Amino acid sequence: MAKVLCVLYDDPVDGYPPSYARDGVPQIARYHDGQTTPTPQALDFTPGELLGSVSGELGLRSFLEERGHTLVVTSDKDGPDSEFERELTDAEVVISQPFWPAYLTAERIAKAPQLKLALTAGIGSDHVDLQAAIDRGLTVAEVTYSNSISVAEHVVMMILALVRNYIPSYQWVIDGGWNIADCVSRSYDLEGMQVGTVAAGRIGSAVLRRLKPFEVGLHYTDRHRLPADVEQELGATFHDSVESLVEVCDVVTINAPLHPETENLFDERLLAKMKRGAYLINTARGKICDRDAVARACESGQLAGYAGDVWFPQPAPRDHPWRSMPHHGMTPHVSGTSLSAQARYAAGAREILECYFDGRPIREEYLIVNAGALAGAGAHAYSAGNATGGSDEAARFTAG
Ligand code: NDP
Predict the structure, then answer these.
(1) Which of 35, 200, 212, 250 has CB 3.0 to 4.6 Å from 204, enough for a Cys bridge?
(2) Residues 130, 260: one domain?
(3) Residues 319, 65: contact at Cβ < 8 Å?
(4) Ligand 1 atom 10: the closest Cα is on which residue?
(5) Rounded CA separation 201/22 (Å)
């Protein structure tokens, strides 16, 4: 029987919700490319409930315990004395979410001799040292597509929030003001702007599709060019380098995974190549951008605004400069964990566990690492290597 160690974010400060704003979430059977949403044999939760926090347990407890497995759920994930690190020593499966990542570094993998499966309830497995997982022969799987549209919607919202100066205008209302000039002196229309995505995978291409009706110029760069008919349908211009894309864009959105090729991609040099007053939206991973260079670019006006929900490490230290730099629209890491998204990735986590325990193959599109190599979605979108360096700084949030 296996021990499953699950790291989830804390419950709301006022306790687990007794009721919800709506009576359910729409049921979606297929994604845009035809891939089916998760197909577990059964579900022990009601879609629309808070599943991603500690008390929600991803709806997995009765399923696992009925099969004789042990489920340990904790939010205490950082530092050598954390419950995560203590429980890891005999865990066979680790489940984590990118929003509150249990960093599975090479050192931690070495302390977990029974570990076989690292499951990401969501998308983005950069919190696992993928090189160490390859070397140890672990399986790393994620619930591909489960929250891609959730993020694409968030990106569109953040682009509009920055360009139209929504957040400061809202603040004037809260503060009792009617300061129209203060609101509009940084407010523009998106119409006619050039908008580009770094990566046109599931999220990036969904952002392009959603922005097309705004009558903007669309641009993308990616390792693989989109099929000609898709490019034509979107009216998107391909750039063979990120430099070429940023030079022409008023708005840039980052939608690539974090791996050695993309770590620190938006450094001082690349930010300097952007148009003065461009907006940068990053819902991919914090480490793709140079933290201090972004803060300086917001202060100097090189960037007119920066928004996103991803930081490094997570939780971000209380003195992280993105909390206080001017003209930002940052939130904690939330875009991929709406209640709608949680229902899908909790079902996907269950599907993967059912396959794992029944000895059936995990869907190819869910695999990131398998049998000592990048596999499935991981082989397409990642490069081997480690992007967890520096994650121990996450312990500063709890200590601070
Ligand atoms: P996909 O795998 O569908 O798309 C990723 C795309 O990135 C692929 O098209 C891939 O190219 C491209 N890519 C990889 N490396 C590069 C590079 N060096 N330069 C340009 N393009 C590159 O994943 P999703 O769109 O679903 O998700 C993307 C990322 O978004 C996730 O990995 C995760 O980090 C983040 N995310 C954030 C969430 C949040 O809550 N904020 C939730 C979900 C995801 P190709 O395959 O052609 O090689």
Answers:
(1) 200
(2) no
(3) no
(4) 381
(5) 31
| CATH code of residue 206 | 3.40.50.720
How far, rounded to the nearest angstrom, does the alpha carbon of residue 48 sit from its chain's CA centroid? 20
Q: Is 226 in the pocket of ligand 1 (CB under 6 A)?
A: no
For 388, other C-beta atoms within 10 Å of its C-beta total 24
pTM: 0.98
Query: How remote is the CA of residue 149 from the centroid of ligand 1, in Å?
Result: 12
* Segment 103-146, tens digit of pLDDT: 999 999 999 999 999 999 999 999 999 999 999 999 999 999 99
Is residue 338 within 8 A of residue 51, CB to CB? The reply is: no
Which two tokens mark 385? 């290597």
The two beta strands, 236-238 and 217-221, are parallel
DSSP H or E run through 278: strand 278-282
Instruction: Decide: 123 in ligand 1 pocket, CB within 6 A.
Output: yes
Ligand 1 pocket residue status of 284, Cβ below 6 Å: yes
Q: Which domain holds residue 94?
A: 3-146+337-376+385-399
Residues 183, 275 within the same domain: yes
Note the pLDDT tens digit of each residue in 340-399. Answer: 999 999 999 999 999 999 999 999 999 999 999 999 999 999 999 999 999 998 998 876
Give the closest residue to 4 by CA, choosing from 110, 99, 114: 114
Residues labelled catalytic: 147, 285, 314, 333
For 22, the 3-state DSSP assignment is coil
Q: Let me know if 121 is exposed, middle or buried by CB neighbors in 10 A (0-12, 13-18, 19+).
A: buried
CB atoms within 10 A of CB 37: 17
Retrieve residue 246's tokens. Answer: 């940023």
Residue 400 — pLDDT band, cuts 50, 70, 90?
Answer: low
Integer angstrom CA distances of residue 172 from 161, 294, 299, 307: 15, 26, 22, 20
CA angle 374-342-14, nearest 5°?
130
> How many domains does the structure of the chain reveal?
2
Residues 296 and 196 reside in one and the same domain: yes
Per-residue model confidence as pLDDT tens digits over 265-295: 999 999 999 999 999 999 999 999 999 999 9
Say whether both 27 and 99 belong to one domain: yes
